[in-house]
Amino acid sequence: MIRIRPTTDQDLDVFVDTVHAAFGRFPETPVEGGGLWWSALETDRCLLALTADGRPVGTAAAHSFELTLPGGALLPVSGVTAIGVLPSHRRRGVLRAMTRHQIDTFRARGEFLSVLLASEATIYGRFGYGPATCTARLTVPCHRAALARPRARGRADEEAAGSVEVLRRADCGDLLEEVYDRYRRAQPGALSRPHRWWALRAGQPPVSPAPRHVAVHRDADGVPDGYASYSIGAAGTLTVDETIATDDAVFTALARFVLEHDLVSEVVLKHVPPGHPLRWRLADFRAGEVSGDTDWLWVRLLDVPRALTARGWCADGELVLDVEDPFLGEHGRHLLTVRGGKAGCVPTDREPDLSLDVRDLGSVYLGGTAPSTLVRAGHIRAHRPGATALADALFRTGRPPHCLHWF
Predict the structure, then answer these.
(1) Which of 25, 189, 280, 299 has a 20 to 30 A CA-CA distance from 380?
(2) Are residues 284 and 375 in the same domain?
(3) Do 196 and 183 meet the contact criterion of CB atoms below 8 Å apart?
(4) Which residues form the active site (predicted)?
(5) Residues 360 and 238 both lie in one domain
(6) Would you say 362 is a known binding-site residue?
C-alpha cells in the first residue's frame, strides 16, 4: 500500500536524498552562494510516496511558472520535475499514482496546462504529455564563420545599431533577469524564470553560480536587449549556454561577437530554435553543423476547451476534435471555432474532423508540430478531405515555439 502526501520544510533532506537515490546518484557538494537545483523547489508542491511503514520510495514536484502562448497570453502552468521512484519499487504503480495525484491537484488549483522536461521519451506519453518544442546545437568552426550581408534590396545590416560589452556573470544578475523576462513574454513556448530562481542561483548557467562571461547587447539608446552566456574550454571551444535576444538582428550581433572571438577554434551555440535564420547568415552555409536536435518542453492539456480558447490563432475556421484521454479515462468531442484570432470551444455531437489522443493535442498546441505530421505518422485520424490542411492552418503560429529554461 502506497501513501502519497505533500512535503513540509522538514522533509527537504529526505526528498532530495530519495530523488537522488532513484537515479543512483548522490546530492552534489553545496556550492558557496547557492546554486543547488533543489533550492528552487516549492516545498508545498512536492510529494513523497511512502510505504505502509513510512519509508519514502518516490518523489514528484512542481514549479509555478508562466507559459507564453501563441498570441502572447501568459498562462500559469505547473512545471513537473523531480520525478523518481526507487529501483526497489518500480513497476508497482508508484509513478502512476503520483502522476494522478499531481493532475488532480493541478486541476484543483484551476490550471488547465502542465509541462515537463522528459528524462526519457517513452515515459510521459502514457500520462497524456506530448513533446511540444524542440531545440538544437549549432557548431561553427571559426575559420569558416564569416557572416554574409543580407541580400534583400534596400535592407541595411541591422547589427550596426547597438553595441556589445562583456561582463562577468557575477556582476550582471539583475540585468540578465530583466532581459530574459522581456524575451520570454514575446516568445511562444517560453517559461518564466521566477525571481527566486535568480536570487538562489538555482538551475543551469547562466542562472547557476558557475563562472561565465556574458556578452550583453545594448540598443542605440544603451538599453540592454540581449545577452549570450559563454565559457571557453581548454581545446579552444567557445560554448554558449544560451542566447537571449529580443529580435533576429540582436541574435545575429551576439553570434557575430562569439564567432569572431580571439583564440577560439569553434563555437557551439546551445539551444538554437528550429529553423533559426543564423545558418542562412553564414557565408558558407555548410559551416553550421546542427546536432543534438531533441525535444524539450512537453505539454499536457488538463481542460481542452479552456486551453484551446486561451491561445491566439492565425487563421479562421471550424474543426470538430474528438479527443481521448486514456490516462484520466475521459473523452470529449469539441467544436473549435476561430474568428479574428480568438477561439470558442464547446461540446458537440457533430461528426469529428480529427480524432486524436490528448498527448497529440499537447504536441500541436503551441504550433511547433503540424497536425499533418501526426496524421502522416498514424497518430491523428482525419475523417474528411481538407481537415488536415485546415488544422495545419489553424494551429500554425507566426513565431515557432521555443523553450530553453531548464527545470
Answers:
(1) 189
(2) no
(3) no
(4) 124, 407
(5) no
(6) no
Report residue 345 as a C-alpha cell: 470551444
Q: Report CA-CA distances (Å) from 308 to 73, 94, 97, 298, 375.
A: 12, 31, 27, 16, 20
Same structural domain, 171 and 288 = yes
Residue 156: pLDDT band (50, 70, 90) is: low
Q: Is 91 annotated to bind ligand?
A: yes
C-alpha cell at 160: 550596426
The secondary element (H helix, E strand) that includes residue 179 is helix 173-186
For 280, phi then psi, to 5°, come to: -75, -15
Same domain, 146 and 262: yes
* C-alpha–C-alpha distance, residues 9 and 43, integer Å: 6
Cα–Cα dist 380/323, whole Å: 10
Question: Does 164 count as an annotated binding residue?
Answer: no
Q: Measured between alpha carbons, how far is 197 from 40 in angstroms, rounded to an integer?
A: 6
Residue 192 lies in a domain: yes
Integer angstrom CA distances of residue 17 from 13, 23, 26, 81, 179? 6, 10, 7, 15, 35
Looking at the structure, do residues 270 and 308 belong to the same domain, yes or no? no
Point out the domain boundary residue: 238, 267, 294.
Answer: 294
Measure the CA–CA gap between 383 and 381, rounded to whole angstroms.
6
pLDDT at 154: 62
The answer to the question of whether 207 is labelled as a binding residue is: no
**Known binder of ligand: residue 384?**
no
Q: How many structural domains is the chain composed of?
A: 3
User: pTM here?
Assistant: 0.96
Task: Identify the domain containing residue 358 by its residue range.
Answer: 303-395
Q: Is 154 within any annotated ligand binding site?
A: no
Q: Do residues 90 and 161 both lie within one domain?
A: no
- 3-state DSSP assignment of residue 46: strand
Parallel, antiparallel or unpaired: strands 266-272 and 237-245: parallel
CB 66 within 8 A of CB 74: yes
Alpha-carbon distance of 236 to 217, in angstroms, equals 23
**Pseudo-torsion of CA 19, 22, 23, 26, nearest 10°?**
60
**Residue pLDDT, tens place only, 78-125:** 999 999 999 999 999 999 999 999 999 999 999 999 999 999 999 999
Query: Which residues participate in catalysis according to the annotation?
Result: 124, 407
Q: Express each pLDDT in 34-84 by its tens digit.
A: 678 999 999 999 999 999 999 999 999 999 999 999 999 999 999 999 999
